[in-house]
């Protein structure tokens, strides 16, 4: 090992020599080649004018040819290679020119030596510069001339540049795409099916995303292997009692990343449209999302599923604050739930304003709410849904609408516009996907037109999912293998779950108070310590309160119900048969309506009527309110104004009075009127009276 000053100097010298070595060849070439070659040609042909002239002509022609060959072989499609071609051709042309002159002039002497020194120095330095730039990786933005690039050429996208092709080691290949002037990214998108065919993958496996900031650029992605084909296991929550604003893991992306959604943390709460044909995996998705939500505090879930509610979420129903299916309130209660929502939205809006919040956050005393409507086309008038969707967003009510059949074709564009997030499972027709997913997603080729052949696979947008992930295929978790564990988890979570806040509960009124299904939460939790143990020990595991509810439901035998209905109809027909249809069709009063004044008695008649005292206003109201109260007591929470005509007559009043009373009660929040003129009883009337 060298020591002392000379040692240090020699180390530095060695280091510099090592660094400079790669850059020396151009200098050595420029220094050695010209004098040797120039001396050689001058010695051979420089003696006589004839041989020198002939040799110069031959070398000139050879120089042109060599330059042309250099130009041809040094082709390239990126700017570095184009520059390299010019540099190489210019070097060859200059070298050959100098050599041609040295045939007669010789290499040594003016101006040949000057040209050699200047030209050689420039040549060597320019190649050094090029070498330095290449070492600094400025040429890494390579155009793909093999693989994907060749593929693009093969399908007619020859001018389109495919750069930076990369695989993620998890079955996904992606590359940057740049279109030349005259072409657009739409041209590349429309060629995506050809790319898929060339790659031997399904059409939906190839997507071409546009770059929102640059119309000439995009990203090409291809799923060349399906890592999710063996299913995605359910990922339980990290702990019970998380806030609604925590992410919900619902599956995996095709590249193995976790697919999670976070609707309550998104900048605006985007209502969700879940779509797909029967068997495409919507129910599994619903169970996954709900299982997570049912373990969270400050969150209440209301769910309507009139088609197969029990089958889909029956095992975890305790986690639902209000659950309407065909055995739990049916169509009537579903309507009541939807009818009370405007009132709930209004009350929550006022409360949030009082709290100084523009929109719901966990700081509010209100719970976040989820209103999940399965097979929405059968449950709700879409105009009603539209109104709810528009207003619910800012008050922390997340609306999820699931459409199972081709019913989405009936949904108006207004409603669709208000369902800004999407989870689109398999559809039969590619055009159907366009109804659910944003245009930019379907245009990229992300179209789940695999029907029910690939259950659980989908594309999802909104809900705080980064936009660049919208075109990546996802697969939802499979919950049916862990049904029991999910049930235990939901039961255990009751201890940490908050009941619905008073503001929303009060606004939801009687319909909520008298709901058929009550979920469990910390104020009415089952014994969570023993519940899971109980689950293993007892084959029918529901807690006692739930058994009672189920017993009630089971007690309603459809045959008995039908017999009762027939009996009622018979009795009705019997009574009606004793009443003459229209005893005096030509009488003066025959065309009178309820709101008309009673005509003066016929002066010729001997008939006199005993004038009964007209009930006082209090008595009239008592009669009317009594009727409404009686209905509420019987759980009949909706009526039409016509249903109150007998009570109005008994109260000695006419229709304008009835209308005035109904208006007053509506203003007091006792009743709620819907677009069709039907009324819902929101609170017991005695309070208002
Ligand atoms: N994520 C998934 N992974 C694996 N298999 C799944 C997944 N989702 C659904 N499946 C399979 O597909 C079947 C149908 O799924 P699911 O019941 O969720 O469909 P659906 O869209 O709700 O149908 P329907 O409209 O009839 O209710 C399931 O029983 C399951 O076998």
Automatic annotation (TrEMBL):
Binding site for ATP: 276-283
InterPro entries reported in the protein's UniProt record: FtsK/SpoIIIE/SftA, FtsK_dom, P-loop_NTPase
Keywords for the protein's UniProt record, in alphabetical order: ATP-binding, Membrane, Nucleotide-binding, Transmembrane, Transmembrane helix
Keyword Transmembrane annotated: yes
TM region positions: 49-74
Entry GO MF terms: ATP binding; DNA binding
Gene3D superfamilies: P-loop containing nucleotide triphosphate hydrolases
Residue intervals of the FtsK domain: 261-434
Name this protein carries in UniProt: FtsK domain-containing protein
Source organism per UniProt: Streptomyces viridochromogenes (strain DSM 40736 / JCM 4977 / BCRC 1201 / Tue 494)
């Amino acid at each position: 090992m060298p020591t002392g000053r000379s040692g240090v100097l020699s180390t530095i010298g060695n280091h510099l020599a090592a660094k400079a070595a790669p850059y020396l060849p151009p200098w050595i070439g420029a220094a050695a080649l010209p004098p040797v070659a120039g001396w050689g040609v001058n010695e051979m042909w420089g003696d006589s004018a004839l041989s020198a002239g002939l040799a110069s002509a031959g070398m000139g022609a050879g120089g042109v040819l060599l330059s042309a060959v250099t130009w041809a072989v040094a082709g390239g499609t990126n700017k570095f290679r184009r520059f390299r071609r010019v540099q190489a051709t210019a070097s060859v042309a200059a070298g050959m020119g100098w050599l041609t002159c040295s045939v007669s002039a010789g290499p040594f002497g003016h101006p040949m030596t000057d040209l050699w020194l200047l030209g050689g120095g420039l040549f060597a330095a320019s190649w050094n510069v090029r070498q330095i730039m290449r070492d600094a990786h400025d040429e890494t933005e390579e155009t793909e001339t093999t693989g994907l690039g060749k593929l693009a050429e093969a399908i007619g996208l020859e001018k389109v540049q495919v750069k930076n092709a990369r695989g993620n080691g998890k079955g996904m290949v992606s590359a940057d795409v740049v279109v030349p002037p005259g072409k657009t990214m739409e041209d590349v998108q429309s060629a995506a099916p050809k790319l898929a065919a060339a790659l031997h993958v399904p059409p939906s496996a190839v997507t071409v995303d546009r770059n929102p900031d640059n119309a000439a650029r995009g990203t090409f992605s291809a799923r060349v292997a399906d890592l999710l084909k063996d299913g995605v296991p359910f990922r339980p929550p990290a702990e019970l009692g998380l806030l609604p604003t925590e992410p919900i893991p619902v599956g995996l992306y095709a590249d193995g990343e976790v697919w999670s959604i976070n609707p309550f943390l998104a900048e605006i709460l985007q209502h969700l449209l879940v779509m797909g044909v029967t068997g495409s995996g919507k129910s599994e998705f619903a169970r996954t999302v709900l299982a997570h939500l049912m373990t969270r505090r400050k969150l209440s879930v209301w769910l309507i599923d009139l088609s197969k509610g029990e089958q889909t979420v029956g095992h975890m129903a305790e986690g639902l604050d209000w659950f309407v299916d065909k055995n739990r309130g049916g169509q009537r209660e579903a309507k009541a739930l939807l009818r009370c929502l405007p009132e709930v939205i209004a009350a929550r809006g006022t409360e949030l304003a009082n709290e100084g919040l523009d929109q719901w956050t966990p700081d509010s005393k209100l719970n976040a709410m989820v209103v999940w409507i399965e097979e929405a086309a059968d449950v709700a008038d879409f105009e009603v849904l539209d109104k709810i969707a528009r207003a619910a967003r800012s008050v922390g009510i997340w609306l999820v609408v699931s459409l199972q059949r081709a019913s989405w074709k009936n949904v108006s564009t207004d409603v669709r516009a208000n369902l800004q997030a999407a989870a689109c499972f398999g559809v039969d027709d590619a055009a159907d996907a366009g109804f659910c997913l944003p245009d930019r997603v379907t245009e990229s080729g992300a179209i789940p037109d695999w029907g029910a052949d690939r259950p659980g696979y989908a594309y999802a947008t909104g809900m705080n999912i980064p936009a660049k992930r919208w075109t990546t295929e996802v697969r939802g978790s499979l919950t049916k293998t862990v049904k029991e564990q999910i049930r235990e988890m939901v039961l255990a979570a009751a201890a940490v779950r908050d009941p619905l806040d008073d503001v929303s509960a009060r606004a939801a009124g009687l319909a909520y108070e008298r709901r058929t299904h009550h979920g469990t939460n910390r104020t009415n939790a089952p014994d969570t310590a023993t519940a899971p143990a109980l689950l293993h020990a007892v084959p029918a595991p529901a807690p006692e309160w739930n058994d009672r509810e189920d017993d009630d439901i089971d007690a309603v035998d459809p045959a008995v119900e039908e017999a009762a209905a027939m009996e009622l109809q018979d009795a009705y027909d019997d009574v009606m048969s004793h009443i003459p249809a229209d005893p005096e069709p030509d009488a003066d009063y025959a065309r009178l309506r309820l709101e008309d004044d009673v005509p003066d008695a016929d002066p010729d008649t001997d008939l006199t009527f005993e004038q009964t005292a007209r009930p006082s206003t209090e008595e009239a109201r008592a009669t009317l309110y009594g009727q409404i109260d009686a209905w509420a007591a019987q759980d009949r929470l909706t009526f039409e104004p016509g249903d109150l005509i007998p009570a109005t007559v008994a109260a000695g009043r006419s229709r304008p009075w009835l209308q005035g009373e109904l208006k007053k009660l509506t203003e007091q929040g006792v009743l709620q009127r819907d677009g069709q003129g039907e009324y819902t009883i929101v609170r017991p009337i005695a309070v208002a009276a």
